[in-house]
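Bench log. Compound arrived from synthesis this morning; before running ITC I wanted a structural hypothesis for how 2-acetamido-2-deoxy-beta-D-glucopyranose sits in the protein. Inputs:
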Amino acid sequence: MKAFSALTSLALVAVSQAHTIFQKISIDGVEQGQLRGVRAPDGPYSTYPIQDLTDPNMACNTGIVYKDDIVHQITAGSTVGAWWGHVIGGPQWPVDPDNPISPGHKGPISVYLAKVDDAVTADGNGLQWFKIAHDGLIDVPNGKWAVDTMIENKGWNYFKVPSCVAPGNYLLRVELLALHSAYAAGGAQFFMECAQVNIVSNGTHTGAPYTTFPGAYYPEHPGILINIYDQYGQPTNAKKEYTIPGPEPISCPSD
Ligand SMILES: *[C@@H]1O[C@H](CO)[C@@H](O)[C@H](O)[C@H]1NC(C)=O
């Protein structure tokens, strides 16, 4: 019996390991439906973060079980929301302090696009990505991170699709980087999913120069190998600026 309880506790610890899944979008404030047009994994063991930056699944994650043929029509210039939950549907238990994510999992959120011929059939691997938005340590004096805003917004992370992005089908990759263990090499935790979108636009910006996943990040980047704790053990980055990994988001003359 004793062995059994020990095992049970271990199992509970394992499944309640804090993770988070991007699983719904909104466009200009209109929610587009749970798991519609978003490729998402499921199950406590398939939603772990990616920590190996050379992982071939860095683009759109692994263990995808939710995938449909919906392509969201997004007019360039729109404000899009990405909704994160601890597990599929949000909370794992009736009262789940780790929904939408463990509040200790501080870090930036970055948004990328990759042009594809067909967002439904496109393979996430081998694409050319560019960044359209990111937030990191958004309030340096108060140690407030993009993750804190997402928790305040009950799982929603909002960003603008730049007005000059060229039209067409894209995969929209939203990535949350949790830095609570990033003080040790390989400790940074990457969570990401991809949505299927068609951008309606008169723009011509194709996003070059591009980056790749894997490939965009390296282990010693100051935003990836970093101790975010101050002398009091608080995740404030000691009130210093934080450098978000990856390229700068594209900018449009008119935005
Ligand atoms: C593209 O340009 C046309 C003509 O000026 C305009 O009617 C349309 O609203 C524009 N579309 C977008 C997405 O900006």
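What the model suggests: Residues 6-239 form a domain with the Coagulation Factor XIII; Chain A, domain 1 fold (CATH 2.70.50.70). Residues 1-16 have pLDDT under 50 and may be disordered.
ITC booked for Thursday regardless.
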